Every structure is written in structure tokens, then in C-alpha cells.
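Practice problem: Glycosyl hydrolases family 43
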Amino acid sequence: MRFRNKHLRPVKRCRPSLLIWSIIGIVLLFHLYTLNQMQSNQIQPPIYYSDQNSITKELETVEEEALHVTTARSRRNPRAVRRKGSQKPPTIIDEFLDKSTEVHELFFPDMTRAINPLAEGNDSTGYFYPGQIWLDTDGKPIQAHGGGILYDEGTRMYYWYGENKDGPTYLAHQNAAARVDVIGVSCYSSKDLWSWRNEGIVLRGEEKDETHDLHKSNVLERPKVIYNDITKTYVMWMHIDNANYSKASVGVATSQNPTGPFQYLYSMQPHGCESRDMTIFKDDNGKAYLIYSSEDNTELHVSPFTDDYLNTSNEFRRIFVRRHREAPALFKFQGIYYMITSGCTGWAPNSALAHAAESMMGPWETLGNPCMGGNVIFRHTTYFSQSTFVLPLPGLPGLFIFMADRWNPANLRESRYVWLPLAIGGVSDETLEYSFGFPLWPRVSIYWHKRWRLPDGWRDL
Ligand code: DGJ
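Answer key — C-alpha cells:
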């Protein structure tokens, strides 16, 4: 039997509108709290320059490009397919890598279409042509692969350092990656980022001493240089390896001049860990970092340098664990750190990813594929190239140059440079972390252009 207590009031149902307004109130309060936290951490909410800056608007237009190639897949005779069964036809990437194909020829056009700074006054002056041969001011193809750029306050010049691969390509043994003997690190100088003067080889490979890290039979890749304001020294870091990539180390060299010569100091495995593809990054406050692929390329490590930049400190963080990323390129905008990485597929191109963090030591989040325009294959192959560096452009906040290598493993000295505008702005498409519906990070976009140039007077804007 159930008794009813007359003194108890019936329980009132909460009205749905009240519930909804309370939730909205809580969300807004939380958002205000987050903004306040960002401000107290001196991280400003992103300003979407790309939407506002009309000077760079042209560079941020999405340019589509059709691919006019006959691939082996499209050439297949349906009757032969029926006869032979479904043998896997080569992919467009296989054909891109195979020098006997039409696809390969399309992506490695010859000297007739080279970017030539000597041919001044013509319509091409100042234009970047991603993927075409780029000549220096002596009329020779630039040899600065896997490179990076230093802006030198003293000389007000840009210096481009990279691998000189101007030798024959061969395989050290069956199944080995295509290689060129170590020749050294080239340096080119420029005021406008378009015409480059060859400053020579600033760190030479070693011809005789087989025990030397720089012996020609070894591997020297991805050299990068930063300036140490305390010791007034130019410090170069590079990937040092043996022909089968099992040494997995980093090397360091120094010079008193941006144009060298650099003295090679030593190689090491930071914190006793493998280090293959790497880069370095100098922050606004002078603190600098080494970022490298480790643990069989399954993850990246970030480690601050000691104050003289000659060693890593004791601290390091593992990031992108089990994500298999390499070719890191770092940059910073409005207090946020950004990174572009590639997948690990040897010399073959793959999809890039953009990442962001509030601190170099993480946590790092992945924003998605930054490539815009071109066509679907371009976007999935980073325009058939691999990241190496991202260069800030003073006077154009929020705009950067994305530098990548279009590797040609059939003839590595013929590898090309893909430079494209990179802009920060708009909403990112794959942001993992949302602060109650408000994406924490802006979008990083690399815009495809067949040809493009920096706005007039960009250095003084
Ligand atoms: C991919 C790396 O990013 C390049 O620097 C080079 O090491 C190749 N692998 C070698 O296969």
C-alpha cells in the first residue's frame, strides 16, 4: 500500500529553456576564462591577417591546376587487364619517381624553363616558379637542398644553406636509398630572396679520412644555421649519418661569418636517442631548440639547446608518438608555435601536416593538411615535394614562405625547390581541440601557384 504525504509538494520539472540558458551561460563564462588565461599567458587570440591584408590577397587565392598526363593506369588496355588479372598498375607517385615516364618529365622540366636572374627586365623578373630549375647569379642551378634560410641582421642579407648534391646519384647497395657522395653545405646570399649569389661551399665533405663524419661515403642532410647573440657565432646543425642511415646522429659546426668557413665540431645522438630528419628553431627570446625524428622515425623529439647552442640541454619531450613524421619546419606567429611535417616515405612525396602549440615543449596538436589549390594529387603529395623550412617575411605578418624539396631520386642533383606562400588565418579544418566550440588554432594554408611573386617593396611594408 502506498501513502501520499500531503505536505510534500510535487517535484517541479526543470523547464528546458532554463536549462539551455544555464548551459549557454556556463559556456560563455568558460570561454571568457579561457581568453583571460590566454592573455595572462601573453598568447593573443589569433588575428586573421589573411582576411584583412589586401597586399597579400593575391597570394592567398586558391589556384586550381589540372594535371595533363597519361598515367600507366589510364593507358591500361581493358582486354589486357582481363587477360592478366588485376595486376596493380604503378601509382602516379611511382611514375613521378621513374625517369622513363611522361609524368617524371612533366615534373622535371629542363633548362629551357629555368628561373634565370640574369635575364633581368623580362616578364619573369622576381617571379618564383615552383618546381622549375632555379639559377644563381652565375647562371648555374642552385644546389641548396634540404635547406634553410638565415636572415643576418649585421649584413641585412638572407643566407640560404643547403646540401650540395651536385654529384652522380648511385645506390650504395641493393635496396639502399639513392644517394650522392657528401660534397658539403652550400651557401647563397640574397637581398630579395629571388636572385641568389653563390658564396661557395661553407662546410666541405671529407675526401680521404674514412673515419670522419663528413667522409664522402656518409650522409649530410638538412643543414640549418642560427646566430648566437651571446657568443657572436653562427652555429650550424645537420643530420649526420652513414650510407644505411643507422648512425642516426646530429652534427654541429660553427663560424664567425655567415659565409663560413664553418669548423666541424662533432656529432652526437641527443639524449642517447636516434636523430634523423631534423631542424633547429631560434625563438624571439634567444632560446633555441633542436627538433628531430627519433625512435626509428616513429616520433619527434624537441630539446632546448644550451645557451651557446653547441649542445642540447638535459630536457627533451617526445611529440607525435607513433605518428611517423619527419622533415620538420618550425615557425611562430602571435605567440603560437607552428610546425609542418611530412610522412616517412624515403624520397617519395606524401601528405604534409600542420601542427600548433602554445609552447615549444608541447603539447602539440595536429591541424590537418595545409595544402590548398592545385589539384587533389598536389594536395596529397605536398605538390610532389617535402617540407624543409618556413621563412617569416618581416613587413607581412602572418605571411611566410614555405620551402620544400621536390626530390628526384633518379638524379638527386636535379631535385627542385618548391617555394610557396604560407598564410595563417581562418578556421582550421581538423582542429582536434576546441574550447567549447571555439577552435583554438587558426588555419595554416599553403597556396599553390604556378608562378608568384612577393608584393613590391615587401621588405619595407
Ligand atoms: C627522407 C628525408 O626527409 C630526406 O632528408 C632523406 O633522408 C630521404 N628520406 C632519404 O631517403
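Discussion: The longest strand covers residues 416-427. Students who identified this feature from the C-alpha cells alone can consider the problem solved.
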